[in-house]
Hints:
The structure holds three protein chains of three kinds.
Chain A: H1 22-37, E1 43-44, H2 58-67, E2 73-78, H3 85-98, E3 101-102, E4 111-115, E5 128-132, H4 146-154, H5 159-172, E6 183-185, E7 189-191, H6 201-204, E8 210-215, E9 220-224, E10 230-232, E11 259-263, E12 270-274, H7 277-285
Helix pairs in contact in A: 1-2
Chain B: H1 12-28, E1 34-35, H2 48-57, E2 64-66, H3 68-71, H4 74-84, E3 97-100, E4 125-129, E5 132-134, E6 140-142, E7 150-151, E8 153-155, H5 161-170, E9 177-182, E10 185-189, E11 194-196
Parallel strand pairs in B: 2-3, 3-4, 4-9
Antiparallel strand pairs in B: 1-10, 5-8, 6-7, 6-11, 9-10
Helix pairs in contact in B: 1-2
Chain C: H1 8-24, H2 34-40, H3 42-52, H4 57-66, H5 71-82, E1 100-105, H6 157-163, H7 192-201, H8 204-215, E2 223-237, E3 246-260, E4 273-280, H9 284-297, H10 313-319, H11 322-330, H12 337-359, H13 366-371
Antiparallel strand pairs in C: 1-2, 2-3, 3-4
Amino acid sequence: MSPQGTVTVSAGTGYNFAYLDEGTKRMIRRAILKAIAIPGYQVPFAAREMPMPYGWGTGGVQVTAAILGAADVLKVIDQGADDTTNAVSIRRFFTATAGVATTTRTAEATVIQTRHRIPEAPLTEGQVLVYQVPIPEPLRFLEPRETETRQLHALAEYGLMHVKLYEDIARHGHIATTYAYPVEVAGRYVMDPSPTPKFDNPKMDDCPALQLFGAGREKRIYAIPPYTQVRSLDFEDHPFRVQRFDRPCALCGAEGVYLDEVILDDAGGRMFVCSDTDHCETRRADGHTGEAA
Amino acid sequence: MAHTLAHGFADPVHEGQAVFRAAMDALSRPGQIRPLATTLAPPAPLIPELAALALALTDADTPVWLDAPLRAEPAVAAFLRFHTGAPLVDAPDRAAFALIADPARCPAFAAFSQGTPAYPDTSATLILAVETLSNSAGPAFAGPGIRGTAHLDAGPLPADWASRWAANHAAFPLGLDLLFVASARLAGLPRSARPVALEAMPCT
Amino acid sequence: MYVAVKGGEAAIDNAHRLLAEVRRGDPAVPELTVAQIREQMRLLVDRVMTEGSLYDPDLAALALKQARGDVVEAVFLVRAYRTTLPRFGATEPLDTGGMTLARRISATFKDLPGGQVLGPTFDYTHRLVDFALEDGADPAPAAEAKPEADAAACPRVTDLLGQAGLLEPSPPDEGAPVGDLTREPVDYPADRALRLQGLARGDEGFILALGYSTQRGYGRTHPFVGEIRVGAVELEFTPEELGFPVSLGTVDLTECQMINQFHGSGAVPPQFTRGYGLVFGQGERKAMAMALVDRSLRAAELGEAVVVPAQDQEFVLAHCDSLQATGFVEHMKLPHYVDFQAELELVRRLRAEHAALAAEPVQDDPTLREAAE
């Protein structure tokens, strides 16, 4: 057997560094390189069965495992928070299998795995943002067949998507898609940004960091290279607009950030706080306060 | 005659990861020159950096094509077969990766797999060992991964290189992706890199 | 002051401890051994091996113990273990014609060479709860005749029919490599070998329901059970350095060959066609359902219109895997605060606009205008 077939097992865990065997990592790495070369195109890859359930981040975990090196500093967030149970579980997985340093500070991380949010702090050139993706195909709810959607992408035939968005306008007066809002990448492929709120879409455009997307159950990897044009689909008379919150974070006073609504009591009391917990904590450490702090 | 086979990665896990990360960075930021350290000492004319990428990216699942100077040295094939297990193919259009030691005689791009409209990712990746590799001069590019414009000067390359690249980019999303290696460094040129005519630049 | 929810780490640790506690149950009751599960819950073990794509009765039994008897969870454990195993190569094709039979029945011929071998089956039991089992009954007296039939005298029914040209032949083995859907993502349309892999790994309940649907008018294929055979088959492997096959031992299998009516086409005379099912251990329900769905999925190949779910390979293959299905269904338990907030904002806005519209005819009323803002 050639050395490419050997298995190196880290002491203690019984598994290779970052869990995946080297052959699987090479397969994923090759898919990542092609994904980078064809921004927004979904590269099929032979996703493995991971020790956590499909739909819980297996695609993101495989991408992270394939790129991670011993010197990386990993941050894992779910809904913008580092302390949600699934974020904790994935961070522990990499601590146990790769022994890499972890952080909750966006600025300190070299690899950030995320579900449903893009951090509020601007990303930098040294960083890679890895998204967990449930349904990578932006056209899936318009056309359930893979054989059909593949042809539509090949022909750059995205009329269906515009019709869907336009029907929203006809019915509701505006586009009723609030998350997983489709984008056009580098003027060619229409792409699903994963179920991030459309509030985060503008952060994908011209971003200094590399953005990688992993869908385990659906076996697809795609990418947005740094400094790539990412345009949210819209119409001249109905331009793309993000959600706006009419109050600042109750804890740190931040404005222009995405907020979680917290129900305080059964009498209708509620407050709005930063969804990005690191952003909120950093601001409070810097002396910013909100009305509830 | 008995050869002693040149060694592979001393630490396949971490060296393979480091070489891949350099390639990932290079391809996602065309025009940037990335450092590529390796202790490999493969048989000539396979240079250590070319060998490092082959070991990091290829295996039994990836047919590999070697250019004439690499094919002419049996020790190169023996080294690659042993360390990667990749099938070496004679037909360039069957290759997932092409290793090119003599870039000035790089075959026409059409000789390699371009991918298909439904699966553009099935195109070949060319890894070329060049003597010159810098980003302070040379043709300019724009597009994904590039802030504004970037230069990439690699050589020696065939005289019709500029028109080859223009055609390669024009076929997007089909097309080849290139990795250039030179002593201790690496640069990438994905098919998405659009050639920019700055001011009627002379062909370098 | 409000304090954001914290404590994910501690919560997970506690959940794991609670799980271990309920898994063990009442400590006064003796703990199950893996051997007990393997021997006495064998059909469950067989199902976990089949859907887990790994023939290892001890591992499947251990997985069932760890999973508190949850089949999908046990399959999950087996699959996640399987994915880390090194691969040495592929065995020679199994010859089920040479099976050491424990059971063999045909519904198409009353008698046939080798005869009908009922073997161990629930088929003719009366489903009356046997309270004698509660306290451990004495073992039943040994069967009168040795159930194992002579393999040489038991040709497959499909081979008998095939000789007369009444049944389509098995596709010839052209030596082409067989795809592996655990190593390459499925590319539609998938060939029959890949479809069979998907069906074999597929959830028994889902495959059963799909097979059932073809019998109830959603794609009728007029099936007959040509043969079901259950028994042990020798596994052979040819190591590269030897160049000839060596035996690795035997695996227990259930094979079902369904025979279906086919009216023929311009190029092919009328003849019977086949649907095929194969599972680890004894799993007749799954093997039969798999054979029905396999035949149904051959619609396009046989020139039949693809109109019902069981004929639609994207529908069947994309949804039959219990791990993919359970993962995605159950991931709805994960927090979706962010997306829900986005929807909440939209619904509030739409409601405000709706109220504004309703308010228009009487817009001079200041209280209504206020409510619309």
